[in-house]
């Protein structure tokens, strides 16, 4: 293992950092989030031109040949700046699910367009009764001649505004909980019977709720197992991206807070001279470094382990890292005092992102329960 | 030591409950889970209470109050909270009120108390300043005596509801030579006085509750000085030492409990209700246990009655520490229970809970931060 | 409710405190625990003479007519001194189970002897596979003419050394988990087929493991429901005693630690002058007062509520209070530094008692699970 | 950044595993879960390692060590721990060893290093004093130069294994005039020298590991001075700054994990195995996730290699904070898993775990308390 960035990764990281520094400071972000025109502000052209959209796309598909590690490097930098554009939803989630779907024809058709930024996809998989768990699907797909028709509702479609098409999970068979029967479909954004409600998340990022009424769709993977497996594989990639983003959030929260402690005075001295606050900062940075370590463990597992193992590690990572982010950024507010509660102070926005992150891809309590169930399965199998 | 319920208090509870059933207008009930009620609703509700003779639950009978014991007031609050009444004007009732009743001249009392009782005048509190947070006594807003007026210059911050209030009670520095606490006075100021500018502070909950208030050559009649000049600090200590049993905001915690239970039986994942998931039931049960302990701690503190000794004061601080910590943990978990919609800012149904959660990050900051409370407890209990 | 001791309770509390002060300081305790002769050191005659053994025995049965509150008053004082004698096992647990059994003949025969200290009983109810849960019983009772024969093993028989007889729970019917089929039996200490292994708990108190091989026994309550109900009622009384004892433990731990912080110097100053330690002490005392409040809530529930409700509250109390005791006493060691790790320093013994207390009558995780199950039952019943 | 396992390290792991399978005598395996191995076992094991050329895993090859990288040593420790080998003499290997290799004269090295390598001489560490705990530099044991001897007078405390050690390395004050750190020297003393008295300190775990060591006119050859007179403090800083990746005691945490898993499948309540109880599986799964993060944090710290910069040092402190906290929480839960026998002190099977838990209360005290570590982190990371 090697924990330092190699030359390419360092260049990648630096290029994102430079973009943040020159074109995406906190005020710019605040304006773009407020204006409701995040897509333009997100500078998708820059993302394409710098190759970030292709960084984790396999070389034989026209990408740079990177892995989830490259995604993590970019995401961490974007997390530091609370980047509000559709990076996670489109560039990571939809792209990786498409790649993992194994549908070569669609991959060859779409991937170059996604990488050069001329087209954008989003993934519609979660539902209110699914809470981010991929195999829980009520949305139905029924075969209708050469095409399929999709009916149902999807929630939290990240980066869903302004896309060209959606990747949609839908069930052609089985009960709400069955792993069998879940396929992936491609639905044009302007398809008949599809209605979209734009939503804004707490951190200002945009998402969409979708309602499908007999919407015509192209099959990506009707093969039930493949469809769900691909979906989950892409989700794992996106969960890693989110975890990396949160590590970036924590880094920046801690930097901002440390700076505040050095400058803010009470009782005639910088409040950073109070031992209780010093120790709090120590606990925060220790929690962050533990979270970063967990991110690395999850990246390693994604790279090296079988699916069952890496999913378990990722479940744990999602819980540990979102919990750490809520703690660290929450304490960031606390150490700022009143000013930390205001919209114009950056620290509160980091906390909001951590709260949103917990709700994405399944909340902490669900992932914890999944870890516990996996442990039970393992120990029961060994000690029957 | 004896734990049988007091039959008189039980009867009192029934009286309150009957009153609320009969007199609380349907359109005033359950307007928000935790935050401030609309001004209009507060006024209407205050007028109804006034009609019942219950205009001021914490004031003595000879001042137009109910003369209720702390236990009675807790029951009143508990029932009001369960019935979802609008809030009363806390600043007027619990902070300014005791000061008027104790320090005001008969003329001052006559001018200011009746409008409070009738719900005709709303107050806000002008204590904190940009440089004076936890170190309140370092405040710099100054009031200079010129003839029969004071001329006020300076700035207050974190002024809750300044934009909705008619009057403000202010701490000002009247003797710039005196050391910190010694030169402070307590002044009542009409918010319509020329020279006052209110600037909104938007909170991370997306709401506008807080303000900056600027004073530029504001002329205040000398008759609006409460107590003697430069005795403002002792008035402040009197005012802040009053309500030890209230620091945990028990009614709020109980509403959270209700909300969690509601979500646990109405929300589901994969067809299973949340309450049927062990990890959810476990978490809620732990919260309920802790809440029960806090509730009894409130009762114990109430039973100390007017006692202003070290222990009562420390109990108030400990209650605030534990109550606000519980508040924050419960409200974060409530948002987790919302599932996907817990991430969404702009749906009315869920926004209340998430905004409430974000707002409550301030609970451990205002009214003496948790750090300040720990210092108080260590000093009062151990002389450290 | 009244949270202050009445005259009788104050006298009771004072008499125990005086005994502790004059005859049971830490050194005396250490010697008696080390000598293995705790029974003499426990001064059972003093307990009888002062009426402590009769304090919570109903007046019509020759006692003082007190309730669990009186038991709690005594237990709290004993907890302050880490009293190591058979108070909990004999004077509370066995006596209260006997009273609750409803067997009038045995009650009339034994109770006067238990109150005057001339006889002592202990309760043998837990088993390794039961972990303190009363209705889990493998030990069997079979009818044999006029008597019964008991076979099985019992663990953690508190105060079991040197008693005259044991109250034993045994199953005449049903599977290990059935509530039906559990009865209570009286077994003479010298009965044939009974073998005893003395054990010492971490805190130096004595207990016993019992093995029964066809041991003759007298029925106390063969009526299955009565037997188990009585057992659980007596156990509830003893859980309250244990909780009160732990509150006493925490009180004294905090006093000892505060004193140490005032006197121990490092870096040229008393370590109590470090803010981080001051704040730790504040958190510790707040946790203790919350635990004390939970004790009061449990006492109130035991007095006022139905069995299902008070069991649930007690489950919560056991968890919250033993957790608090482990935290508070554990932090007591931490603040002492190295000296706190030594056998000769009192603080570590308080921590040990807290650890033992968690294992008695079912550990925290079991009680938490029971609370969660009760919540599920309640909410499922209401929202079917 | 790259997370594929290193094939050379994997091969090394196999080599170690094979060696342990072939060379670890059965009667030396699994003698204790966490604490010190018996002296005799240590000596036999050290001789076996010496025969293999692995006598000093942390020493360079030209000093008789293995020259292994930190990663290799972690693998070695991991495998030794899994195989349950006796411990090596940490004081000699990791504390004194680097000092000898770096500061000793060739004569000194020749006298002291070979007996360590062969397992013939055990060492203990004489740093702490009654008045010098966290404030180590305030030590007062003095050594006066008289001819070719130093005469040592004073007292050390918390001296682990002084009663089993052959030699002690001491910090002594050689210049009483100099300020704190300046007048300290590093001295090697044979424990058989007249005037040394060792007095046992019994720990709350019921064991005797610690001692007070008294020096009364103890004559020590001047040749036993390491480095120059009064340069003891810089030697100490060198020695204490060495092993950042080891502060979390990862092998211990892994043994705890194994112990929890074992208990979860072997213990049951009411016929249900603990692993089948959701609250138990949930707790263990959370611990395992956290452990995985700590493990990766250890790898990250190891990868900093010889780096002695601020970050490496801070990582060591953060690892100690998080690792020892996890140690304590895991060991407390392990005891909870024992059920009734978790309360019992004198059964061999369970006593190990409970004693281990009590012993580990010291983990957050020795080697720089958690409070000291937080201060170090705040200073190194934020300059606070």
TrEMBL record, chains A, C:
The keyword Flavoprotein applies. Residues 122-214 form the Acyl-CoA oxidase/dehydrogenase middle domain. Gene3D superfamilies: Acyl-CoA dehydrogenase/oxidase, N-terminal domain (1.10.540.10), Butyryl-CoA Dehydrogenase, subunit A, domain 2 (2.40.110.10), Butyryl-CoA Dehydrogenase, subunit A, domain 3 (1.20.140.10). Its cofactor is FAD. SUPFAM superfamilies: Acyl-CoA dehydrogenase C-terminal domain-like, Acyl-CoA dehydrogenase NM domain-like. Residues 7-117 form the Acyl-CoA dehydrogenase/oxidase N-terminal domain. Keywords: FAD, Flavoprotein, Oxidoreductase. Residues 226-374 form the Acyl-CoA dehydrogenase/oxidase C-terminal domain. Pfam families: Acyl-CoA_dh_1, Acyl-CoA_dh_M, Acyl-CoA_dh_N. GO terms for molecular function: acyl-CoA dehydrogenase activity; flavin adenine dinucleotide binding. The keyword Flavoprotein applies. Belongs to the acyl-CoA dehydrogenase family. This is Acyl-CoA dehydrogenase. It comes from Sphingomonas cavernae.
Automatic annotation (TrEMBL), chains B, D:
GO terms for cellular component: plasma membrane. Residues 230-380 form the Acyl-CoA dehydrogenase/oxidase C-terminal domain. Residues 7-120 form the Acyl-CoA dehydrogenase/oxidase N-terminal domain. GO terms for molecular function: flavin adenine dinucleotide binding; oxidoreductase activity, acting on the CH-CH group of donors. Signal peptide: none annotated. Keywords: FAD, Flavoprotein, Oxidoreductase. Its cofactor is FAD. It comes from Sphingomonas cavernae. Belongs to the acyl-CoA dehydrogenase family. The keyword Repressor does not apply. Transmembrane segments: none annotated. This is Acyl-CoA dehydrogenase. Pfam families: Acyl-CoA_dh_1 (PF00441), Acyl-CoA_dh_M (PF02770), Acyl-CoA_dh_N (PF02771). Gene3D superfamilies: Acyl-CoA dehydrogenase/oxidase, N-terminal domain, Butyryl-CoA Dehydrogenase, subunit A, domain 2, Butyryl-CoA Dehydrogenase, subunit A, domain 3. Residues 124-218 form the Acyl-CoA oxidase/dehydrogenase middle domain. InterPro entries: Acyl-CoA_Oxase/DH_mid-dom, Acyl-CoA_Oxase/DH_mid-dom_sf, AcylCo_DH-like_C, AcylCo_DH/oxidase_C, AcylCoA_DH/ox_N, AcylCoA_DH/ox_N_sf, AcylCoA_DH/oxidase_NM_dom_sf, Mycobact_Acyl-CoA_DH.
């Amino acid at each position: 293992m090697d924990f330092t960035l190699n030359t390419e990764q360092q260049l990648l990281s630096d290029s994102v950092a430079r973009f943040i520094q020159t074109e995406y400071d906190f005020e710019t972000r605040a304006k773009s989030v407020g204006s409701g025109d995040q897509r333009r502000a997100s500078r998708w052209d820059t993302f394409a031109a710098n190759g970030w959209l292709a960084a984790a796309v396999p070389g034989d598909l026209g990408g740079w040949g990177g892995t989830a590690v490259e995604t993590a490097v970019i995401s961490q930098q974007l997390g530091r700046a609370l980047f509000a554009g559709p990076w996670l939803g489109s560039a990571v989630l939809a792209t990786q699910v498409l790649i993992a779907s194994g549908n070569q024809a669609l991959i060859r058709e779409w991937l170059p367009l996604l990488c050069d930024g001329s087209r954008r996809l989003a993934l519609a998989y979660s539902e209110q009764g699914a809470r981010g768990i991929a195999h829980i699907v009520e949305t139905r797909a029924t075969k209708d001649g050469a095409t399929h028709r999709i009916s149902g509702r999807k929630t939290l479609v990240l980066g869903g505004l302004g896309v060209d098409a959606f990747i949609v999970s839908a069930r052609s068979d089985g009960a709400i909980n069955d792993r069998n029967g879940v396929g992936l479909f491609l639905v044009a954004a302007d398809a008949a019977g599809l209605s979209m409600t734009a939503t804004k998340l707490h951190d200002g990022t945009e998402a969409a709720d979708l309602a499908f009424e007999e919407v015509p769709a192209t099959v990506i993977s009707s093969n039930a197992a493949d469809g769900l497996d691909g979906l989950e594989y892409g989700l794992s990639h996106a969960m890693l991206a989110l975890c990396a983003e949160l590590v970036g959030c924590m880094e920046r929260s801690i930097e901002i807070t440390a700076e505040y402690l050095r400058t803010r005075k009470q009782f005639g001295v910088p409040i950073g001279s109070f031992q209780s606050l010093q120790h709090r900062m120590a606990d925060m940075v220790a929690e962050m470094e533990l979270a970063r370590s967990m991110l690395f463990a999850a990246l390693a597992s994604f790279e090296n382990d079988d699916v069952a193992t890496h999913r378990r590690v990722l479940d744990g990572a999602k819980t540990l890292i979102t919990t750490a982010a809520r703690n660290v950024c929450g304490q960031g507010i606390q150490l700022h005092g009143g000013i930390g509660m205001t919209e114009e102070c950056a620290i509160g926005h980091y906390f909001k992102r951590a709260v949103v992150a917990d709700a994405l891809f399944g909340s902490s309590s669900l992932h914890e329960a999944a870890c516990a169930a996996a442990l039970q399965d393992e120990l029961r199998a060994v000690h029957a | 030591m004896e734990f049988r319920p007091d039959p008189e208090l039980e009867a009192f509870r029934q009286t309150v409950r009957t009153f609320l059933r009969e007199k609380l207008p349907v359109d005033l009930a359950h307007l928000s889970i935790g935050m401030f009620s609309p001004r209009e609703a507060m006024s209407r509700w205050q007028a109804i209470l006034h009609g019942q003779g219950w205009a001021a639950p914490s004031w003595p009978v000879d001042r137009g109050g109910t003369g209720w014991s702390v236990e009675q007031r807790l029951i009143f609050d508990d029932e009001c909270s369960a019935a979802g009444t609008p809030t009363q004007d806390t600043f007027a009732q619990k902070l300014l009120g005791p000061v008027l009743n104790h320090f005001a001249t008969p003329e001052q009392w006559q001018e200011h108390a009746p409008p409070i009782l009738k719900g005709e005048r709303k107050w806000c509190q002008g204590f904190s300043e940009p440089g004076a947070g936890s170190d309140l006594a370092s405040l710099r807003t100054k009031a200079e005596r010129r003839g029969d007026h004071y001329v006020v210059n300076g700035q207050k911050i974190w002024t809750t509801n300044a934009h909705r209030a008619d009057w403000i009670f202010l701490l000002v520095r009247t003797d710039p030579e005196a050391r910190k606490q010694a030169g402070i006075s307590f002044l009542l100021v009409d918010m319509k006085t020329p020279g006052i500018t209110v600037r909104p502070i938007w909170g991370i909950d997306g709401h506008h509750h807080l303000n900056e208030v600027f004073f530029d050559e504001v002329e205040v009649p000398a008759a609006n000085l409460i107590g003697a000049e430069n005795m403002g600090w002792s008035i402040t200590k009197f005012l802040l030492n009053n309500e030890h049993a209230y620091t945990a905001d028990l009614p709020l915690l109980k509403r959270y409990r209700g909300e969690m239970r509601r979500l646990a039986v109405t929300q589901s994942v994969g067809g299973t209700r949340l309450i049927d998931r062990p990890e959810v039931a476990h978490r809620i049960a732990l919260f309920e246990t802790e809440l029960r302990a806090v509730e009894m701690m409130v009762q114990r503190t109430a039973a100390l009655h007017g006692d202003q000794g070290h222990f009562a004061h420390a109990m108030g601080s400990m209650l605030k520490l534990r109550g606000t910590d519980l508040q924050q943990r419960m409200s974060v978990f409530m948002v987790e229970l919302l599932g996907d919609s817990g991430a969404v800012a702009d749906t009315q149904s869920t926004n209340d809970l998430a905004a409430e959660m974000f707002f409550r990050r301030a609970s451990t900051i205002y009214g003496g931060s948790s750090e300040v409370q720990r210092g108080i407890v260590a000093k009062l209990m151990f002389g450290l």
